[in-house]
Amino acid sequence: MISDETLQAFIKPYYENKDIMHNLWHIELVQKQIDHVIKLGNYDVDREALRLALAFHGFVYRDEAAIRKFLTEHNCPEDLIEKSIKIAWESQRPEVPQSLEGKILHDAHVLEGGKTYTVVKTLITGSVRGQALTETLAFMKEHVLNANKCYLPETIPLCEEMNTFTNKFYEDLRKGME
Question: What is the pTM of this model?
Fold first, then answer.
């Protein structure tokens, strides 16, 4: 098992230059949701593969080879390497995850921070990108409203609540700006 310190040292450079909504704090928030989802569903999961997949989910699509090299150099069994990478890939939207761990990571990522977080994340990310509020709202309308989906029975109602809140917030703000 790779220590938390060793894993953090490896992933830190990949998250350092990301915006404030996708940095290492993002990993902590998603981990809290993972723990919550596992508890809600009383799931028996491969926690090590899930821990590694969470760490890598933000850059697996860009640097899978480096991840594989890191895991191999730290004597991870081949089956753990394959499973962790598969879960990291499965958690990416819009693909439907096949494994339980992939669904948990996906849904925890969607629900990160609770029902209000999608609105906050969208507004902050738009601001960081230098967008005007009208541009961010246009992005929100096209890419965020009703775009989130969860797959586990315990997370589907939470996602519906989040989508309802996000839609209402958007409509209220848009009307207030007319």
Answer: 0.91
Q: Is residue 18 pLDDT above 80, yes or no?
A: no
Buried b (16+ CB within 10 A) or exposed e, 109-127: bbbbbbbebbbebbbebbe
Per-residue pLDDT tens over the stretch 122-157? 999 899 889 999 999 999 999 999 889 999 999 999
Q: How many CB atoms lie within 10 A of CB 173?
A: 14
Class of residue 160 by CB neighbours under 10 A (exposed 0-12, middle 13-18, buried 19+): middle
- Please provide the DSSP assignment of 113-168 as one string: T-TTHHHHHHHHHHHHTT--HHHHHHHIIIIITTT----STTTHHHHHHHHHHHHH
Cα angle 90, 93, 96 (rounded to 5 degrees) comes to 55
Question: DSSP string covering 85-113, please?
Answer: HHHHHHTSSSSPP-SHHHHHHHHHHHHTT
| Residue 112 backbone class (left: φ over 0; alpha: ψ -120 to 50; beta: rest) | beta
Instruction: Supply 34's token pair.
Output: 């993972």
Residue 62 · residue 140 · CB < 8 Å: no
Tell me which amino acid residue 159 is: C
